[in-house]
Amino acid sequence: xxxxxxxxxxxxxxxxxxxxxxxxxxxxxxxxxxxxxxxxxxxxxxxxxxxxxxxxxxxxxxxxxxxxxxxxxxxxxxxxxxxxxxxxxxxxxxxxxxxxxxxxxxxxxxxxxxxxxxxxxxxxxxxxxxxxxxxxxxxxxxxxxxxxxxxxxxxxxxxxxxxxxxxxxxxxxxxxxxxxxxxxxxxxxxxxxxxxxxxxxxxxxxxxxxxxxxxxxxxxxxxxxxxxxxxxxxxxxxxxxxxxxxxxxxxxxxxxxxxxxxxxxxxxxxxxxxxxxxxxxxxxxxxxxxxxxxxxxxxxxxxxxxxxxxxxxxxxxxxxxxxxxxxxxxxxxxxxxxxxxxxxxxxxxxxxxxxxxxxxxxxxxxxxxxxxxxxxxxxxxxxxxxxxxxxxxxxxxxxxxxxxxxxxxxxxxxxxxxxxxxxxxxxxxxxxxxxxxxxxxxxxxxxxxxxxxxxxxxxxxxxxxxxxxxxxxxxxxxxxxxxxxxxxxxxxxxxxxxxxxxxxxxxxxxxxxxxxxxxxxxxxxxxxxxxxxxxxxxxxxxxxxxxxxxxxxxxxxxxxxxxxxxxxxxxxxxxxxxxxxxxxxxxxxxxxxxxxxxxxxxxxxxxxxxxxxxxxxxxxxxxxxxxxxxxxxxxxxxxxxxxxxxxxxxxxxxxxxxxxxxxxxxxxxxxxxxxxxxxxxxxxxxxxxxxxxxxxxxxxxxxxxxxxxxxxxxxxxxxxxxxxxxxxxxxxxxxxxxxxxxxxxxxxxxxxxxxxxxxxxx
Amino acid sequence: xxxxxxxxxxxxxxxxxxxxxxxxxxxxxxxxxxxxxxxxxxxxxxxxxxxxxxxxxxxxxxxxxxxxxxxxxxxxxxxxxxxxxxxxxxxxxxxxxxxxxxxxxxxxxxxx
Lengths: 762, 112
Hints:
The complex is a heterodimer.
Chain A: H1 3-26, E1 35-39, H2 41-44, E2 54-60, H3 65-81, E3 86-92, H4 93-102, H5 104-110, E4 114-118, H6 120-156, H7 174-186, H8 197-214, H9 223-232, H10 238-269, E5 278-281, E6 284-287, E7 290-293, H11 305-316, E8 319-320, H12 322-329, H13 339-342, H14 347-357, H15 361-372, H16 375-379, H17 383-386, H18 400-411, H19 421-430, H20 442-456, H21 461-472, H22 476-483, H23 489-499, H24 502-519, H25 526-542, H26 556-564, E9 568-573, E10 577-585, H27 590-600, E11 605-613, E12 616-624, H28 634-646, H29 649-669, E13 677-681, E14 689-696, H30 701-711, E15 715-724, E16 727-735, H31 744-761
Parallel strand pairs in A: 2-3, 7-8
Antiparallel strand pairs in A: 1-2, 1-4, 5-6, 6-7, 9-10, 10-12, 11-12, 11-15, 13-14, 14-16, 15-16
Helix pairs in contact in A: 1-3, 4-5, 4-6, 5-6, 6-7, 7-10, 8-9, 8-10, 9-10, 11-14, 11-15, 14-19, 15-18, 18-19, 18-24, 19-21, 19-24, 20-21, 22-25, 23-25, 24-25, 27-28, 27-29, 27-30
Chain B: E1 2-8, H1 13-23, E2 29-35, E3 42-46, E4 49-53, E5 56-65, H2 67-81, E6 89-95
Antiparallel strand pairs in B: 1-5, 1-6, 2-5, 3-4
């Protein structure tokens, strides 16, 4: 089945319609030079699948409505009686033009106009009008065309990743191919249409066979029909068919992206075009609303560029320019001893990956664009096996790779529920990595793949084991919750023995929710959610809860420095970060003052550990290196801290300005960020109350928290501050002015007030 | 003919299915259900917020049988679904006037 059959089918319909047209004309009062019949849309292109509709247009020269109604009815009656699907309209040349400049669908349909019968010159002028009008109004139509593509994607998904795709309407399908042709006709941009020729031939063939087999005009390729369609096309099986369709759809989608990129560049060129972009991170700029590499930036000396650019783009809700992706892809072949293959990665690279994955929905598009240039498989060769991999499961909607991305995007909304958001996101991204290996349990084999992969990414051995356990047990909670007796102590023992600790339990719980939600409504109902919640609550009660770590221990050297009781600053430059140790006489608001100084110096805190011993506070900071931010001198930092301690007001204004700028950028990014979570723990330590803060990281966050605690009248005895990708997890050890832990009531009030404050600032 | 409906604990579904299969019943309709009986609501903590659970997850199983088998089928389900603890569920039957198998057009007991 191919183009020839479609043309023949179209010709057969032509013959039948032309015959009916002349017969109806003979019995009507209409002069033959006053009317013409033309085909439009898919029928106009002469491409008819067995179930395609007939789209026809009657053009007339101001004929009376009554005559036209009678004519059309008498002509189409025989077809209607045969059950043919016919879409028709009746218009003058002027009416056709008016409708086409106001309705993009009509304008697109008219581009494929083809003469069938009647007055040929009437057809010719309308065809000419349609093309001229399309070219003239293309810029006006573009926003509508783009929003229609987005609407279609929302309703019909993406052909490349759906297990039951719509061959016409899904993204990357036949509708998109027609659109690409229309954009070529506009001559507004040039598009390499030959890139989609093979894809087009395949999707058409699949649709023809589908229509033929089902005897219907339905375009959705259901699981139950895929084997039969594959057999007719001479493919091995349904998986082979879906794989071929995925590749075809991706080439269509990629060509469409190239087209919109070209349109974007052209649109902006006509305005006051800036000559350079706005620097947004080391080596990166925002240019024409896309993230690009800074001019002359040496990417060869920056192995972490890929995930940094991905993180920056995703967190800002921007795309990466296609030229930039191609430039990174062309860095060169991966050698056997390169970081991609051997690892372990630098810490900042891993954090950038986490930050990228944690951006949720926005991450998916960027991930796909990197995958199209094979950049994902370069860093994760394990990914290649699950790329486009279909899955035979009625609950699933997506291919394995896309399902894992969807799961990671859902997990991004659950990062506040766990103590280790980084592990949740990475575990979600790779939880089905073991799928598609014949004879192997995907959870077990996935865990075998996950462990070395995690080590390569630079996770500690312990964290790598947790990640492997997440993959191994990712189905444990839903399976046990729905199939085992939760009242039976043996059930809870079984889960407790498998999961071992509360940290893994909370990670598995969040992963189960994300996995279920990403799979679809049938896989994750309130019914199942409640059973899993019940199992988690019971198991949690049977195991030791998560104990927050104690305040940081100090070294002998630090204790000796602390004893001197004087302000002392040390700075050590690491490969991708600065380590700063500040020892200072303790005073109310000391931590807030130091945080303020670092924020104003634009030093981005990655981790911090502070501890007060007697009258002295020892604080250790790890801050990110940024080429746009000068490395402070010991004298300069000492001086700034001294000035801040003597009167912090001037810093407040500058910090407020930084937060305001950040908030404006964050609001523009459109990221769905879960609200902050603050909890107070009073039972663990007899010396202090623990305040845990989990929220999206932002400039000046530690300053905001510590200054709020200072205003609240509590002493900060110690703090452990971690940034895990874009997420901040801060543990603060506080006491009242007498050095005693807070009462439960006061601790709860403090947590509630702090949560309100942070929510209002996000 | 009778429609036998059972509300059982989710984890008992496999046991009940196997017992019904052994009895000779191979077809049934199973759906997720939420409800409560004597085991009224209890309190849970979910995502940090305390809330009262009024509805407990259960499985609803439905099977149409010949009237003469109804009592025995109920007995099979009760035995297989029982744990002896509270919340084991309920089984009931109601008369069915007419049944048609869509594919073949068979009706009555032949359609079961």
